[in-house]
Queue: 3 jobs
Job 1
Amino acid sequence: MLKLMSKTILIITAALAAHQAAAQDFSSESATVLTAASTAGKSLKLVLPEFPVTKRVKAVSICSEPGQAVIVAKLWMPGMGHGSAPTQLAPAGDGCTAVSNVQFVMRGEWQIQVTLQDGDTGVFDVVVE
């Protein structure tokens, strides 16, 4: 029984590591960059100012190709069924939007759910350590 549990734990650990590696397209010691496709196929990019992502993150940048402004950026924790305070948005040029008032209130798996000015939507999966 113990041997079976050990194998199960290893499989779950490997699956989690693969999920995190796939979700984080680029990371360095100073930033994490994630990409996603909108429901209409637009290319979206999320830049978080640190790696790994922690609760200290208070602002991010979201860009779209072609340049569509972000009109909603909702932080949601699907596993817990809650989000956090509403974010504040400001145009940052070149199809990018500066998002402030980011509050990852706890560690775990979060989503940043995005709505673009044309009504298109996209989701970024973010692991907060």
Job 2
Amino acid sequence: MRQGCPDGKNPGPAPTALPSHRAAGYPGAEGCPRVVAGSDRRAKPTRLMVASRGPVLLESTIPIVPKAKHRVTFFFLGRLKDFLTPKQRGSAVQYAFAGRPAVKDAMEAIGIPHTEVEVVTIDDRRVPLDHPLDDGHRVVVQPRDFADAGTRFVVDTHLGKLARWLRLLGFNTLYRNDYSDPEIVDISVAEGRVALTRDRGLLKHARLASGYWVRANVPADQIHEIVECFALRERVAPFTRCLICNAEIHRTEKEAVAPRLFPRTCREQEEFRHCRGCDRVYWRGSHFARLQALVKSVMNWA
């Protein structure tokens, strides 16, 4: 479908870099990856050396993690392994800690956002995400089934092409290229939308209940991934939403839009659709066949 609404309209030397600090993680026993965390963290200023400038006292503080006293074993199933390193995917993950952190905090320290988790069991007993960990626990984490997560989305700023794809297929998808992370969280919570993002940190926001990390990098692969993961194939309704503003588009009489059309379009086209959200007019233009082929590729992809 074609949109038919013509509008006619000296820097100085580079600063010396300070050494970075390594994260608190190291190989555990028996080759299992190990993550260290602590709930009682103190901090002290750190003195670092900068070449030819003498010692510099940083005002920012670096947490001192107390010696980990406890350890649990995590088993992440299914697509949750996508968040792990290649070494972690082939084994259980040992998590060392002090205090009594919640399951959610431990998982997200390892890199698993809570929005992708369906069920957590400790020693074969189902527990909530805020359940505290104790030494020796065996924690099994199952991925969420997004097939029943709904068909209303809010998409982050890095996924504009995916947003247009979803609208092309008829799915209610909010997108702006200037959304902030807090705005996305607010919209998802207030309107019950699934947040789609390539930013894992966004999915760890405490208030966010429904969110999915898009694995693919290429837009064509991303739409296939979302259609498959959310079981959308049977709910596709192509060419029913505006690609620009997301509002529904409706058939309209030619006479109602004729003054806004190019003469050739007015002569050659008889069927038109109108977006009440942004007042654009759509018709079956020269690239309609290409859009139909794109929709067909999604429907036939397996």
Job 3
Amino acid sequence: MNIQKQRMDRMYGAVTRINAIYENYAKQNGMSYLEWQMFYALQSAKEEEICLTQKMLCDKLKASKSTVNSIVRKYLSEGLIELKDKTDNKKEKLVVLTEQGKECTNRIVLPVMNAEMGVMAQISDEQLDVLIHAESVFAEGLEELLFQKKE
């Protein structure tokens, strides 16, 4: 097997393992991976003091409008999130955690964020920069080659 194929297999294995960790964690907490990702995104936005619209969630999660809408409706009915009017555009709604939703993210998202920070603290800044750059270049190249417009 050539060296590039071995590297690809190792990278694919690492990415698959990381995704499986998140998926299993979500499942252990009674959610789908995408549902858990929504709460992760809402927690991240809360920490940055910004609010997300459903469209922004679609972009962040790389999910369809109907999928995100279904998830929002589910957790709206469970009282974990609420929709608020966006001041500059009444058609767009902001997805906001309720107090119950904040308790939920404290229980199921913050432990993961803390674990991620703990792992990242074990990796040098230079290694992290190389990793992030390489992943970005790989994702952009793969997306371009797989989904390029046929002319």
